[in-house]
Design brief:
mainly alpha, two-stranded antiparallel sheet, 6 helices, globular
């Protein structure tokens, strides 16, 4: 695997907000953003609720481009548990919640993601008509 393929994989994965949250969680555990516990909690909570919505309500499947993979049914439920709910649970167990921040990091990350990507397109969410 060369550098170009690694960059493509990162571009594909980081279009999903879940990987933004996982990346921020890694930064938290490495000590870089320890003072932003509430922002990270808020982001992980949004990811958990969003994963629940996509898995059980709409669209009940997830397409990953470049790999041409569509995840659905029990594979989607398992992925939802592993990538959306388990990171939140681990964070709740490990976090001390000593540092109250004003959710500024969460706001910046969410706005940046929404500025770069369209979640309705990425997740194939169909609005009610």
């Amino acid at each position: 695997m060369n550098i170009k393929q690694i960059i493509i994989i990162f571009k594909v994965l980081f279009q999903f907000f879940t990987f933004w949250g996982l990346f921020l969680q890694i930064l938290y555990y490495c000590g870089f953003i320890k003072k932003y516990e509430y922002s990270l909690f808020f982001i992980l909570l949004i990811i958990s609720l969003g994963g629940f919505f996509i898995t059980y309500i709409n669209p009940k499947k997830l397409f990953i481009p470049y790999f041409d993979i569509t995840i659905k049914n029990n594979y989607l439920k398992f992925s939802d548990l592993i990538f959306h709910h388990l990171p939140l649970l681990i964070f709740l167990i490990k976090a001390k919640f000593r540092n109250k921040d004003n959710l500024g990091l969460a706001f910046i990350i969410i706005v940046l993601y929404l500025f770069i990507f369209n979640p309705y397109y990425i997740y194939k969410i169909e609005c009610l008509k």
